[in-house]
Write a structure and sequence with these properties.
This protein has seven helices and 15 strands. It has helices spanning 10-33, 51-67, 99-104, 171-184, 197-205, 219-231, 257-266, and strands spanning 40-41, 48-49, 72-75, 79-80, 89-97, 110-117, 120-128, 134-138, 143-145, 148-149, 162-165, 190-192, 211-214, 235-237, 249-252. Helix 1 (10-33) packs antiparallel against helix 2 and helix 5 packs parallel to helix 6 (219-231). The chain is globular and about 50 Å long. Bound molecules: D-MYO-inositol-1-phosphate. The site of D-MYO-inositol-1-phosphate has 15 residues, from strand 5.
Length: 273
């Protein structure tokens, strides 16, 4: 990694991320309380974006760039930097992860904000905007929830494992994901689909899910939560030696990872559209 510029240690970046994410979560919550307006669709008829997603993203980008004008931001709604210059900070933001839950008032939606340097996430926060629960991590500094250190599940038997997953918005992808789901459900304790990937990763980080997988996640869905899960002791990967990415995000405790990995390969979980 390039030398860290002054003011850009993981701890300093996390402190900014936490402050900005709290303000963002307050805006999301307030806009929901005041009534959700202007609901539009994106990739498919079920992929919604609310005025709040856009307003929260603008607020976060403005706050980050006012404080750190040399940084870049990649956000879910407005896009942004594909990469940053060597040693520079790129922020990766999902202003409201779990937008469908947000729309329906289900208390499982979050602001997810990560700081990346040289392609490596070094700090991240996920804040459940409905409940105020907050998970944080810095690379090498452990994973934390509301000031308490967290560690992942110690489950060693796949048949006893509670697995989290999610589905994309494209109906053809969903059809494939449904087939994987149907074949996996008899091989594990049970499967949960809670609707906000960033929160799923944090729940796995503290052992409230034993493991998680999903195909099709974008960097803003898993950048912060992936670091939190890794710092909580999970193995975070793709399949067949690939890093976690759009083809697959798999996280599991070290003892479960090989077996779940092989089951995902057997079920062709990264296949389909
Ligand atoms: C979605 C959620 C969902 C996951 C989808 C994501 P959004 O993000 O994280 O749990 O299954 O793949 O797209 O659209 O609510 O920001």
């Amino acid at each position: 990694m390039s030398e860290i510029s002054p003011g850009s240690s993981p701890e300093e970046l996390l402190s900014i991320a936490v402050r900005v994410a709290r303000e963002a979560a307050a805006t999301a919550r307030r806009m929901r309380d005041e009534a959700i307006g202007d609901v539009q669709t994106k990739s498919t008829d079920t992929d919604v974006v609310t005025a709040a997603d856009k307003a929260v993203e603008r607020q976060v980008v403005e706050a980050l760039l006012a404080e750190r004008p040399g940084d870049t931001v990649l956000g879910e709604e407005y896009g942004g930097a594909d990469r940053a210059a060597p040693g520079a900070v790129r922020w990766i933001l999902d202003p409201i992860d779990g937008t469908v839950n947000y729309l329906y008032g289900l208390p499982q939606y979050a602001v997810s904000l990560a700081a990346e340097v040289d392609g490596e996430v070094v700090a991240g926060v996920v804040r459940n905007a409905a409940t105020g629960d907050e998970w944080t991590a810095t690379r090498g500094g452990g994973a934390w929830r509301d000031g308490r250190r967290i560690t992942c599940s110690t489950e060693t038997t796949l048949g006893q494992a509670l697995i989290g997953t999610g589905f994309g918005y494209d109906p053809r992808r969903r059809a494939h994901q449904g087939q994987v789901f149907a074949r996996m459900i008899t091989r594990v304790r049970d499967i949960r689909r809670l609707g906000a990937a960033s929160l799923d990763l944090c729940l796995a980080a503290e052992g409230r899910l034993d493991a998680f997988f999903e195909k099709g996640l974008n960097p803003w869905d898993h950048a912060a939560g992936g670091l939190i899960a890794a710092e909580a002791g999970m193995v975070v990967s793709g399949l067949n030696g690939a890093p976690a990415g759009v083809e697959m995000v798999l996280l599991a405790p070290p003892a479960l990872h090989p077996e779940l990995h092989d089951l995902l390969v057997e079920l062709d979980a990264a296949g389909g559209p």
